[in-house]
Design a protein that fits this description.
Number of strands: 0
Distance between the termini: 7 Å
Radius of gyration: 15 Å
Bound molecules: zinc ion
Strand content: under 5%
Number of helices: 4
Structural class: mainly alpha
Order of helices and strands: HHHH
Helix content: 55-70%
Shape: globular
Largest sheet: none
Length: 92
């Protein structure tokens, strides 16, 4: 079974590129049994929506240079989340 950490990495990868079918199946299986990862997937999708809209919309957004870029900040938060996924169980 996939560990939650691996699932998180695969989910972020899926934001940038299409995952292979085998990966998507393994993710789907894990998500059916893991509430934590389902929740994280929801958060990732929300962020993806937000960044997608920000990147493509012609609506002028109040983005200033002192606002940290979504991507780098997001990456840091994600790394924290991934580390928090580590638990005491021997097998994830
Ligand atoms: Zn999980």
């Amino acid at each position: 079974m996939l560990s939650c950490k691996k699932v998180a990495l695969d989910m972020t990868e899926s934001l940038d590129q299409e995952l292979s079918l085998s990966k998507r199946i393994r993710l789907a299986v894990h998500l059916t049994i893991c509430r934590e990862c389902r929740h994280m997937k929801g958060q990732l999708l929300l962020l993806k929506e937000a960044t997608h809209q920000a990147g493509n919309s012609e609506v002028a957004l109040p983005i200033n240079d002192d606002v940290p870029a979504m991507s780098s900040d997001f990456q840091e938060r994600l790394n924290e989340a991934v580390e928090n996924f580590e638990d005491d169980s021997d097998e994830g």
